[in-house]
Amino acid sequence: MASRRRMLLKVIILGDSGVGKTSLMNQYVNKKFSNQYKATIGADFLTKEIQVEDRLFTLQMLILPFLQIWDTAGQERFQSLGVAFYRGADCCVLVYDVNVVKSFDNLNNWREEFLIQASPSDPENFPFVVLGNKIDVDGGNSRVVSEKKAKAWCASKGNIPYFETSAKEGINVEAAFECIAKNALKNEPEEEIYLPDTVDMAGSSRLQSSSSGCEC
Amino acid sequence: MQDADEQHDLSDDSDYAAAKHQGSGMGVLSESVEAGGFDENDAFEVVYSKENVAIHPSQHIGERISGQLRVRKQRSSLFLRWVPYIHIHHEADYARNLSKSSTLAKDIQLYVINDLPFRCIRCIHRYIPPLAWQYIIIVLSSGLAYPPLYFYNGGIREFLATLKQHLLVVRSADNVNVFLVNDLQDPLQRSLSSLDLPRAVPNSRASSVKSPTAAFAFDEPQTSGRAKTNGTSGASEFAEQQAVKSHDPAFEISLQVLEKFSLITKFACETTSSIFHERQNQNCPSFEKISGENSSSKVLKSDKMLEPSHPLQFDNSLIHIGEPRQHPLDSRELATFFDSEGRVNDSLALRKRIFYGGIEPNARKEVWKFLLGYYLYDSTYAEREYLDSVKKSEYDCLKSQWQSISTAQVRRFTKFRERKGLIEKDVVRTDRSFSFYEGDENPHVKLLHDILLTYSFYNFDLGYCQGMSDLLSPIFFVIEDECESFWCFVALMERLGPNFNRDQSGMHSQLFALSKLVELLDRPLHDYFGQADCLNYYYCFRWILIQFKREFEFKNVMRLWEVLWTHYLSEHFHLYICVTILKKHRRTIITERMDFDTLVKFINDLSGKIDVDEIVREAEGLCLYAGEKGAACIPPGTPPSLPSDIASDFYPDNGDL
Q1: Which residue has the higher pLDDT, B131 or B233?
Q2: B74: which DSSP letter?
């Protein structure tokens, strides 16, 4: 198991219903966007083979809408099903819709939920990445969460890398997931994996100026 | 994960040392090294006895063999004994009905554990699954294992706690549920312990002690004031060696072998007992030889023994094909089920007919209202017409409740806004590739929204939850009428509403029942899930939550649902469908040794690849095969069983009709 573990990077994708988690994952893996994605029931799971420094990894991406509904009391259904799914997570991606303020406000809930359920050994340093999705909608005119506000929140939570994305247009998706993979790798214990100081991943030059980028 | 209950844990506590000291009192000096077997004529002491410890030689519930587990002590050596109560719990008649492979009385003798010296035991693997009986697997030094011993009355902790009073038992550093056994008081064991056997590793807490020898310091009291020589020095030497070897790959390999063995209850049982019987009869003559060999080659040898007859080939008998599917019920045939006033007098016959054949699309609209429980079978045409009109005005009233909420109100009504928002988000992504819901501004999508929002007012406590739009969509497509679809949906939710309970009780009870059914109908798969920590069955969550809606294309979902809704063979036929699908893929699941994540992905990816007719047919066979034993796996009240008071709740004015 130990040798297999090394090859797998497990990423949990969380965020309010309809912010585009499935779309982001599909854009990254299949380079496709569809208006007809169904609401995820249970858990959605995609994998992608990635290469870092001549080493192959399987990036496992898991959407967990078990934690689907936040009602006003902050309670949601299917909550405790999470634990089994969170096990062994290497990175957690928090997604919100830049056009829906509530989805941004809930980032804190999702982050805390993750830390409770996954209970990583070093919660302070567990890698998160935040994605502000749907920047394409209405040419950006309907957006209600500014980049500045999002970045401020990310900075306050220990400099979480932040990306502004459009799953529909494919904007910044590749760069975001490269950062996610890098951060997931960073989470691997030293003795399990040798990680050079700089990891130069293919395509990282495409990182767009609109994002604060990956600071790992 | 730490066990909640640590007081019986096998830590090196003071009780342990004391007990050990005490236990070692007699016979240390009087032992003769060549002695090995248990001698019935000699004095012995029963140090442990447990009733209702069972072996499950096969997946057939009728072949479970209960017995008595004992640990006896003779000349300071410990012996394990399990003897079946042959005549009591072997339900031979039942087993004969089910299978040709029923265990004969003489075979039962194969399973007897006949005073097995503990020095022949490498380790004890403990399984305490949350949803099933706890069991242990005894692994021999050779790497072979006995079949699981199920503790029907619990008490594995007590068993292990008793052992630790007489033996050196330590937790494996690699697996908290593996307990390594060293009968250091057994003279033969003592001499063997000086050999370099990859056996015990200190448990994780013991290893936190500074020096590796200190972890075994509880041996020390024995030596005080007593002329002990090779015994203790051998033990501490051994401990030092083992501390160094705590990640011995050979040990890991042998655990894998153990896991393989436990997959194949019957096969492992036959193999191990026949082999072991030989050895037993010869008083373990080959033991020294085997233990002198390189341990990994031993493992390979035992591994090879598995090959000629792959464990997974044993399930041939498990494929149960039901009756071929009949042609669907059409309107003409349907008419024959009604009497002149419109009553369905033999609703069982109708349900049976649908169970085996389904319904023609153009007859669905009428029949689904009965199947779902909106119409009562014994209602007349006139009564149903009246019901429709009453329910129409009731629906309009419910709908107007949310329609009358003004924009100003909405602004101050967060809960409503959020609920409406969720529904809006979901209906636009429900079956949009299906022609009925296709395209922009599709009116059917708007009606899905209206029905769901109205339902969330009808059942405000449950509200709206993801998955509901999936359940409504085929109903609305078939029923077409908004109001009737609503009431059909209400009727369905009387059964499936608990799936969306906030405390998850509805889902958990179904997952629990599923686990019990797999345990009954596919023991090796159940055991595998146990080892892989997959007994929560969360990977079947979507199947159950929305009745396989995402697993089949739209038209096949309708075919499946009408079969499920007949509740003909079982109200919980959907669980048999789950078991059937899992069984069909058991070989892949087990041979690829899927872990939880892999299993989630694998099960998700089955979507669209399942043949609905085939699976219904096989599930039918399985359901019949399981019979009452299957039904007994499902606790009363498990959804979609109706709560007993529902019928009156749904038809409060029934008497007036």
Answers
A1: B131
A2: E
